[in-house]
Design goal:
The chain is an alpha/beta fold and 366 residues long. Helix content is 27%, strand content 22%. The strands form two sheets. It has a nine-stranded mixed sheet with strand order 10-9-8-7-11-6-12-14-13. The chain has a five-stranded mixed sheet with strand order 2-1-3-4-5. Helix 1 packs parallel to helix 5 and helix 3 packs parallel to helix 4. The two termini are 38 Å apart. The relative contact order is 0.12.
Length: 366
């Protein structure tokens, strides 16, 4: 097969995986494309439990055309019996002759066993693909990897700030620092996240709905969990997010005087009168969340940084100067006293989004 074919069909498989992101956890988002005689004969993406994996969906779509065909898949097929039967056996039974796949599954139960099983059955397994595609495949399952290896979701800290680093004016006005295109991109980030987290201060100041919405303003049904951290039980029953469909987790540090009908209440104190953030991270992991988006003010953002629970940053920079000593920044106390201790970001990239710029990076753990 040519490099052009690998680029074309693996890119399509990655697009399918992206369509599944945010809706299939604790499964990883995977895409698969089956090609025979230069024609796509089957496609599939991960389905939520109890649905099938991407490879099986593609095989079912291809039917008898799968025999002698090539499968392009974004993640190593699993070879063990889990919730779903081994995808390797489905691939072998279908007569797939070649598998093109860039990365191994980080799950210790897989981790190369799928490739070995396929090779032992005579399937030609090709893992040598362009580095750009390999990196995209790894990023696609980075949240799944975090959940698998550390038992918690991958946390992305997202915020919008002025070009001089303020998230609001000194009086608290923040709507809108960025334009409509940037806000649409923020909704896309919510859509691919399993959970969106904010603090009660943001709920009181902005009254957000915390839903992902499309260009028409209609909810997309994601994220599947919205989380409000509220150490002092300040969220009121008329908060807009409580009127939206979907699950809400109200996390408090003390037993509230009254409960909210449309929210699950979780009392999770840390001993200092605040919500225990590391314990919450583990709980979200136990609920199968792979990716969580933190959209909060500087105070809660600073608490996540201090807890070592920021893995990625998505910063939208709007074309405005705010100024003012009292205007808040995106990350508050406690902060770092020395630059050597400050968080450093790797894999930085940026792109224009309307009149704003989105800068993303991954926190270096070296």
């Amino acid at each position: 097969m040519s490099n052009h074919e690998t680029e074309q069909y693996l890119t399509r498989a990655l697009d399918l995986a992206a369509e599944a992101a945010g809706g299939v956890s604790p499964r990883p988002p995977v895409g698969a494309v089956i090609v025979k005689d230069g024609q796509v004969v089957g496609e599939g993406k991960t389905e939520p439990r109890p649905g099938v994996h991407a490879e099986v969906a593609a095989i079912r779509g291809a039917g008898e055309h799968a025999s002698g065909a090539t499968m392009y898949c974004t993640l190593e097929p699993h070879a063990h019996q889990g919730v779903a039967a081994p995808c390797t056996e489905e691939i072998i039974a279908a007569g797939i002759s070649t598998l093109v796949c860039p990365i191994e599954d980080p799950n210790p139960k897989v981790n190369g066993n799928g490739f070995r099983r396929l090779r032992s059955a005579g399937v030609d397994v090709i893992t040598d693909v362009p580095e750009r595609l390999r990196q995209q495949a790894e990023e696609m399952v980075s949240g799944f990897k975090m959940l698998t290896l550390q038992g918690r979701p991958q946390f992305t800290l997202k915020y919008a700030m002025s070009i001089d680093g303020r998230i609001a004016t000194s009086t608290g006005e923040s709507q809108w620092i960025t334009g409509e295109e940037a806000r649409a991109e923020a909704h896309r980030l919510r859509h691919i996240s399993d959970a969106v987290l904010t603090g009660s201060g943001t709920v009181l100041a902005d009254n957000p709905r915390m839903t992902a919405r499309n260009a028409n303003g209609s909810p997309t049904g994601r994220p599947r969990l919205r989380v409000v951290l509220d150490s002092h039980t300040r969220m009121s029953s008329d908060a807009a997010l409580l009127d939206e469909p979907g699950d809400v987790l109200w996390v408090v540090a003390q037993e509230p005087a009254t409960m909210h009908d449309n929210a699950e209440t979780l009392v999770l104190p840390n001993g200092d009168g605040r919500v225990d953030i590391p314990a919450l991270a583990k709980l979200l992991g136990d609920r199968g969340c792979c990716d969580a988006l933190v959209e909060a003010g500087g105070k809660l953002a600073g608490a996540f940084v201090a807890a070592g629970l920021v893995d990625r940053v998505a910063a939208f920079v709007g074309p405005v100067l705010i100024g003012g000593d009292g205007a808040p920044g995106p990350v508050g106390d406690p902060g770092f006293e020395q630059l050597i201790d400050a968080l450093r970001l790797d894999d930085l990239w940026s792109k224009p989004v309307g009149d704003s710029v989105l800068i993303t990076g991954r926190v270096s753990r070296d």
